[in-house]
Write a structure and sequence with these properties.
The protein is mainly α. It has 19 helices and 9 strands. The strands form 4 sheets. The protein has a 3-stranded antiparallel beta sheet.
Amino acid sequence: PYRQSERLKIYEPYIKRLIDQGDAYVCFCTKERLEALKEEQKREGITPKYDGHCRDLDPEEVKKRIENGEDYVIRLKLPPGQPIVFDDKIRGQVVINTDEMDDQVLIKSDGYPTYHFAVVVDDHLMGVTDVIRGEEWLTSTPKHVYLYDRLGWEKPNFVHLPNILNANHKKLSKREGDVSVESFLKKGYLPEALINYLALLGWSPGSERELFDLEELIEAFDLEHINHSGAVFDVEKLNWMNGQYIKKTSNDRLRELLKPYLSEEPSDAMLEILKERMEYLSQAPQILEESLSFSFEPDEEVGEILADARSATVREALIDKLAQVEDFRAEQLQKIFKEIQKENKKEKIRGKMLYMPARLLITGKKHGPDLAQIMEVLGKDEVLKRLKEAENLLEERNEQDTSES
């Protein structure tokens, strides 16, 4: 059984063995006494720990007090001044003296085991060979090592991983609102990107390579390349990595993944726009809105471009040629731009002086996703409508330029 409540009988013979061996004892100290002890130790500048008040009670007294219904716990009885030594696969040999440790509660007053007792028994019975956990458990491991020794069991290999840190170099904590896997998935991070990113936090593959699929990670991973110090969780790096995975995702799968975020099924052209700019899936609506809407962003460079007579030439050529296009797809639209460039060699309508006016007249913006993809998504009627209405923009710029002259 895996439920703790169904395993209580399993722990009984092991706790009895520890008591019979003198490695555990019954403690009747009340919560009030323990709190008072803790406060007194704090006042004296002593690290709070149990003072061993019940360590040497007479067995007959213990039996009588239990029969009288007194509440009790069972504690580990550590020998004084004994070094406990174990090997950690990352930190090497670790030595902690029992004088620095506490007589840990093994069985609580309700009869349930504490983690420190249950984990040793459960791991042994399940045949666990390697215990890999966070470095905050390093100081608890000597208690577990001691229990393995006293119960006569073979100890597993211990590996204590460095913590993942937030931007303030403190341990990453869900309680402090840093992260949760659920929130990342809800925001639209791909599982494979999260796994890839987390694998590289505190571990190095021994090369500059950063993108691995799961099978490659399994093949490459080893304990020897785990760092000793904690790694900072860098959301920007995760965003970059997730963006790389999105770019590699097939359009069919991406459509399926985007269903929770978009009201309509995106076309291939829409997906190409998203792949170019999206770092996580929940950005999709905003990216499409910003990419497809017309919002004029004037500045000095924009003014110079629109005031150039070649912008009017580009506009007129696009209106003329696009009106004749039946297959309004990005590949065909790219050919239109090449035709315009070829036909206007003398005017040097090419590169920036071809695509910048076109983008400004169709989207109002200097920069954005691939223009041909945007045009395909907008459709022929909308693109022609915008180009025709853009005549006002050119007139305004020319009037302003004449006025300033």
